[in-house]
Write a structure and sequence with these properties.
D-Maltodextrin-Binding Protein, domain 2, 10 helices, ABC transporter substrate-binding protein, 46% helix, alpha/beta, globular
Length: 217
Amino acid sequence: MCKNSQQPIKAGYHSAISSPRVVLEYSMKDAGLKVTEDPGDVDADVLLVDLKGVQNLVPSLSSGQVEIWAGPAPHPQNAENTNVGKIIATLNDLPEGKWENFPCCVFAVRNEMLEQYPEVFDALLTVTNYTCDYANNNQEKSGELLADTIGVEKDILPKSLIKYSTEPTERFLAGMNIYYDAMKDMGKFEGRLKDNTFEEAEKDIFKLDPINKVRSN
């Protein structure tokens, strides 16, 4: 569809370094499409548009600002439920299996805080681990609890395909490698991260012992 269009297809994302934005750009590049953020580049297949927040995802479709967007659940489900849009692909549908279970969110802490207050961080990780299990096993109740906060009807959230996890699997790390390389390509890093490989940065970035300890208890 993009290659036959007379002008670039407008594809939206909600945040410049969000996982949907990374998947949107790099999966299209993997498919051989020319992707740009320059509105004057009429030779591109896809023009990326920063929609500046999840609250603008559904309105951007209804207004015709963009033709497609990539966004986090439950916003695609909400677009379908309101007859504004249609889900055309999930992460699992994209080629090569490269994007399946792609990382979205991480728990971050400053090194000095982790060193000074390990018991606090252990407690937060314990709650996070429990919350993930609860959300996976109680989708309808989680939908009721979160509907007002997210701003969707309570029956939308159980339609989400998200499976929450605190397990730092090899697939998670492989996804973070893609994420890291994409952010380097976008010029988002400064200092030592700007020139480091993922393998070098991984030693500084990931502190997996605390979550592994919590999961083993």
